[in-house]
Amino acid sequence: MTAQTEALDGEILGPEGEDEMRVRRDFWATVKRAARQVPMMEDVVAAYYATLDPETPLRVRAVLVGALAYFVMPFDAIPDMLAVVGFSDDVTVLTGAIAMVIGHIKDRHRAAAKKALEEQG
């Protein structure tokens, strides 16, 4: 983990949040699996970093955690295992959530996302 990502590695919604634990546990594996199917992956990762940032308002973090939890769940409206269309519902949910809170996704979140995705290769 880089210094940039360590600085943003805070609590999402507190230690008891089931969605938070699911997102933390499964996020990067889902990013790798979805990288070719989700054209806005840098925005998704920036949203993840916004959830980790203690300066992000709780209501914004809640919106983003809900969308990210949906993203990491393998079985949802359209199962993610289906080729081509598997992540289409996830993209719709993520696009809506990010659009709602776009002003709270800061340049530092985007920079951390870009760097993390470059490191993922």
TrEMBL record:
Gene Ontology CC, one term: endomembrane system
Compartment(s) of residence: Endomembrane system
Top-level taxon of origin: Bacteria
Swiss-Prot/TrEMBL keywords: Membrane, Transmembrane, Transmembrane helix
InterPro entries from the UniProt entry: DUF1232, UCP031804
Topology versus the membrane: Multi-pass membrane protein
Pfam families: DUF1232
Domain DUF1232: 61-95
Protein name: DUF1232 domain-containing protein
Lineage: Bacteria, Pseudomonadati, Pseudomonadota, Alphaproteobacteria, Hyphomicrobiales
